[in-house]
Amino acid sequence: MSCPSRHVWSLAILTLLAGGACASDESVATSSEPLDVKSSVATYLQQRFFHFEHGNTYTSFIPIPAGQSTYQNNWRKQARNQPHEGLVTLTLARLGRCNEARSILTTFFQQQSPEGGYRYDTRPDRGPWDNQSYTAAPLLAFEAWEVYQDCGGTDFLRTAYDSLVRNKVWWDDHSGRRFPDESGKSCNGMWHWNDPIESIRDSLPESGFPQVPTWASTDGPQNQCSTDLNFYLAATYRYLAKMEAVLGTNNGFQQIFDTFSAQLRQQMWDPGSSFFYGVDRRTGGKVWVKDLGGWMALFAGVATPEQAAAMVNAHLAPPTGAFHTDFGIPSLDKHHPGFGSNLHWSGGFWPGLSLLAVKGLADYGYTAQAQRIASPFVNAVEQGIAHGIPLPEWYDSTAGNVGGLRCEIYDENSPSNPDVNCNYITSALALPMAGYAGLGSISWSCRSSAWQGHQLWTCSHGDLYKCDAAGPVQKICGNGCSSRPLGTDDVCRSSTISWSCASSAWQNQQLWTCSNGDLYKCQNGVPDKVSCPNGCISNPLGINDACR
Predict the structure, then answer these.
(1) Cβ(137)–Cβ(196) under 8 Å?
(2) Cβ contacts of 423 within 8 Å, gap of 6 or more
(3) Cα–Cα distance measured from residue 160 to residue 152, given in angstroms and rounded to the nearest whole number
(4) Does the N-terminal peptide bond of residue 337 adopt cis geometry, omega within 30 degrees of 0?
(5) Region 143-166: what's the mean pLDDT?
(6) Where are the beta strands (DSSP E) in 346-432?
(7) Which range marks the domain in which residue 234 is found?
(8) How far apart are CA 144 and CA 150, in angstroms?
(9) Residue 186 to residue 225: CA distance in whole angstroms
């Protein structure tokens, strides 16, 4: 049964319900009771993730049991702050824990180097940075602005702004990470990372995972004007301009943002493949690897509306879009030969950078795509919290949290025994991600899914809807949905379909064809499938076969 009614989302309690015809297809596993992501995350963060030391708040990436030291050899059990894990300040601000959110960010301002640089991580026992080793990913302007939006505090905003202006000077003049034009190549003043660790996307040989393909393509990030770093810096200028509007200051950051954005569009955008790419500083050519860094153009507000539309249409469309997977958004183009949905930064789903991608999509008006990415993660977090399932640092971008993927976190005193509790702090990003995506209670007309006194799953805009006693419910279909005849439930499409289009061809058209209990045909050369719970029946030649 199909009904093309439009649907609208509103921010409220996320309600996802289970059951129905798509259970074996592409629907997201859901709960039978309404879940409130805000309450769930608030409960999750009651674990000992936050540590007040030396006058400031520091985080540990997994909870440190009471009585254990916050200076352990296990880096996940150390009190320290990093800007990427520091995205949790957005969660704290939404929960009203404003002093902690501000305090975490303030540690970077306090430990800033005399030249204006931020170290990769701040710790309670450290003073100002000496500009050695790794720098922090430039996400602090965004985080400070978002915390201000939820918590207020112009004094905090002024402190952040003044520190970030000094950091801009550091990137320009003292970072040693900028490519001048002296080589005659085409990086023209853009920036590079000095080490994969700085980039956050740091699959190292000792991790057992392959090197990030974009870094491998240039023998390391130091040889590349990368998308992620340069878009983060563009976003920094954008948020500094917003701060200037509040503070009544004008150092020209709006013009700096506009000029730099135009440069990035000129040098990184490829209209033929509708994507943004890094630039190899040795050759001046593009680094032809599509990964999550390209989506940071939307987070930064660099992409034009036409470029954003081209990216979404080309790369998020089901089922063949390069970044369309069953769980969230993959960190690498799924058609890349090095892709694996469970291969760390070569295809896994990472909550932090995915949060930025979701925000970017929502900012450009692609709410449905943002929701499709956010929903499986938000639901996995809610279910994990409700049922005591450990929530890992990152997820398989096809299967999701398969029983606690990547929970091999070891106690420093018992390296052979994995910790029972491997909950990771970035799972709390489900709250701001749900907010950016506009996930909420479903506005759906029950009349649109009614049939002779009962409700049927109804395909609309790629997902399934119907009503039960509690109201409208939804199934997320990772590869869209297919309509079935009146009086029967519509169904989600399967993800991997092995089918020869010649087998369903009839006189220059495609007909639904019964095979092994399900229906198949091709649309625009791409196989499509309808799963038939009770098998299918074959009709005479020239007529679509049908589910029983």
Answers:
(1) no
(2) 44, 47, 62, 63, 390, 391
(3) 13
(4) no
(5) 96
(6) 410-411, 414-418
(7) 177-303
(8) 10
(9) 10
Residue 515 lies in a domain: no
Buried b / exposed e along 353-390 (16+ C-beta atoms within 10 A) = bbbbbbbbbbbbebbbbbbbbbbbbbbbbbbbbeeebb
Kindly report the backbone phi and psi dihedral angles of residue 53, in degrees, each rounded to the nearest multiple of 5, phi listed first.
-140, 140
Residue 535 domain-assigned (yes or no): no
The domain tally of the chain equals 1
Answer whether residue 208 shows pLDDT above 80.
Answer: no
Residue 190 confidence class, pLDDT cut points 50, 70, 90: very high
| 259 within 8 A of 230, measured Cβ to Cβ | no
456 to 19, 317, 345, 358, 544: CA distances (angstroms): 12, 26, 40, 31, 22
Other CB atoms within 10 A of residue 10 CB: 10
- Among the listed ranges 94-108, 117-131, 235-249, 413-427, which one has the minimum average pLDDT value? 413-427
Q: What is the mean pLDDT of residues 16-36?
A: 32
> Residue 466: which residues within 8 A CB-CB, separation 6 or more?
20, 446, 449, 455, 456, 457, 458, 472, 473
User: What is the rounded CA–CA span in Å between residue 480 and residue 271?
Assistant: 26
Q: What is the distance between the alpha carbons of residues 330 and 291, in angstroms, rounded to a whole number?
A: 8
pLDDT of residue 57: 94
Residue 514 dihedral angles phi and psi, to the nearest 5°? -75, 125
Residue 289 within any structural domain of the chain: yes
Of the pLDDT bands very low, low, confident and very high (cuts 50, 70, 90), residue 281 is confident
Provide the percentage of residues in the chain whose pLDDT is more than 70. 84
Q: In this predicted structure, what is the pLDDT of residue 461?
A: 73
Which candidate, 128, 342, 40, places its Cα nearest to that of 31? 40
The position carrying tokens 């996320």 is: 14
How far apart are the C-alpha atoms of 300 and 162, rounded to whole Å? Answer: 21
Contact 417, 411 (CB under 8 A): yes
- Nearest CA to 105 out of 85, 124, 83 is that of 83
Instruction: Give mean pLDDT, residues 384-412.
Output: 70
User: In the predicted model, is pLDDT for residue 2 greater than 90?
Assistant: no
How far is Cα 417 from Cα 137, in angstroms, rounded to an integer?
33
Instruction: Count CA atoms closer than 13 A to 360's CA, side-chain side.
Output: 29
Residue bearing tokens 């150092």: 251
Give the span between the Cα atoms of 426 and 240, in whole angstroms.
25
Task: Return phi, psi of residue 255, to 5°.
Answer: -65, -40
Residues 49, 89: Cα–Cα separation, whole Å: 12
- Asked if 375 contacts 31 with a C-beta cutoff of 8 angstroms, the reply is no
Residues 104-154: tens digit of each pLDDT = 999 999 999 999 999 999 999 888 998 888 999 999 999 999 999 999 999
Residue position matching structure tokens 């020239």:
542
- Cα–Cα distance for residue pair 20/488, rounded to 1 Å: 12
In a domain, 424, yes or no: no
Least-confidence region, from 201-215, 238-252, 330-344? 201-215
pLDDT, the chain, mean: 84
